[in-house]
Amino acid sequence: MAERAIGLATAVRAGDRSARSVVESHLAVIAEREPDVHAFNLVLADRSLARADEIDAIVAAGGDPGPLAGVPIAVKDNTCMRGVPTTCSSKILGQWRPPYDATVVQRLHEAGAIAIGKTNLDEFAMGSSTENSAFGPTRNPLDLDLVPGGSSGGSAAAVAAGFAPLAIGSDTGGSIRQPAAFCGVVGMKPTYGAVSRYGLIAFASSLDQIGPFAADVADAAALFEVLAGHDPLDSTSIAEPAAQVSGVLDRGVEGLRVGVISELSGAGIDGIAADVQDRTRTAADALGAAGALVDEVSVPSTVFGLSAYYLIAPAEASSNLSRYDGGRYGLRVDGANNEAMNVASRSAGFGDEVKRRIMLGTYALSAGYYDAYYGKAQKVRTLIRDDFAAAYENHDVLLSPTAPTTAFPLGDRTADPMTMYVNDVCTIPSNLAGHPAISVPYGVGASGLPIGVQVLAPTRGEAVMFQVAAALERTMA
Amino acid sequence: MIGILPAMSSPISRDDVAHVARLARLELSSDELDRFTDQLGAILEHAADVEALDVTDIEPMHHPVPMSNVMRPDVVVPSLDRDEVLAQAPAAEAGQFRVPPVLGEA
Questions:
Q1: Domain residues of chain B, as ranges?
Q2: With contacts defined as CB-CB under 8 Å, which chain A residues touch B90?
Q3: Does domain B14-51 correspond to CATH entry 1.10.20?
Q4: Which of A129, A151, A152, A439 is catalytic?
Q5: How far apart are CA A338 and CA A361, in angstroms?
Q6: Which of A272, A422, B13, B104 is 20 to 30 A off residue A335, Cα-Cα?
Q7: Does residue A338 sit at the B interface (CB-CB below 8 Å)?
Q8: pLDDT single digits (tens) A97-143
């Protein structure tokens, strides 16, 4: 985590530093450590150098390439880039090259950022460790025996290893925030609809949201401002200007009301490690010392979030992933008729976790079970939204751990899916409610590994969320 | 509450899993069928807390943003290039995707 994005962009825009030299220095770090870490499915060396030369030419001609001029960015490999293989870390997409750019890719390009590579993920973003990749796991740059978290583990690892100052990921149940916590970087999930999903390959459409990774809160805020905004190509995009957040970062927390979510943070909660509880309490105390009004608040139905999520997300996935049938793109395994071809292609192309979730979702939606599972889970979603609304009546933001534990060893939790799913217990409620939340690195736990503290805010509450996150970060300095 | 419940009598049978796999166009080996039955059973066992809730009078939430029927302006814009799209297909012919026969054994 050498150089910060804002500093690099300032130097490139001023002509003090060439974009080419910025890209070259990051490619050198990649050449040295990527063989150990495996953050990328594809490094775009030639393409990023060519783009750097374009940016340098704009600066030389007196132009402004944009707020992220010359900043390398790692892009999760479930985000479409025209003409560049986009795999979702699945065999089923084969060597598919999208015929269009995702809106976020277009926005990054217009802001002068340089896509330096496509990052590894759990297949179709289904997982919490980046071990469910058809191309092998990503390792945590802080300790190669440990997972980086997931599903955006490649993006988190890329920032932590200094491969790029910025990355984007997608967060359906915690897939940005949990790997950010495991790798000691900042990761943020925006309000549902704040960032366009056009060109993000769908997992669970009512939950998916693209968001930033960065080494600090200011860089994450700068990237969020580039990503966010209305997009007519995404019908769920919020049709209002996105929150401006960079201007509020130094405002402090004097008088702000911060509620620590008792169901996810308190002592005696089964599954939240003692050192994670300690750091969350320390963070709350530090915000109190900085002038915030801190108390504990109950958001009772969050305890049902995990169960509701693992019915809703697979149900939506089972529908979204029905498009992979060997017909129009990606892998085809031949069969005697069309259905046999569909079955052979899907059976060969999907990994175990994806098959599990497709079947779970198909079951939860099937006749006789719909009301008991999917229908009920959607009602729990209402309960969680209403409980959050009650908590926000007298709080500006809420606080909790990001993940129940620090990073765990590779292979530790692959045998039993439930032991993997509980990683998402603190992050899922924000996805179900559609709210923004950010993970801020807040010191280390018992084994010296980073711990993330999560700041949650209500719908479109990014400004106050970033304000508190920046203040929290300063209490660590 | 966050703890993991042990699977007792599985809420999903081996036949259920085989049926669901057929619906989802997946072919499973006998070993996979056993393994997935256990795993899906454990996940559904955990979901028993939701299944047991009385939420009779609660409206379901389908989506975080209360909106419906989002329309775009009725203006013709360029669409994807057909040749570029078909170049990505496993098989194409005469400007169309080519697939095996839909009916019969061919």
A1: 14-51
A2: 326-327, 329-332
A3: yes
A4: A151
A5: 23
A6: B13
A7: yes
A8: 999 999 999 999 999 999 999 999 999 999 999 999 999 999 999 99
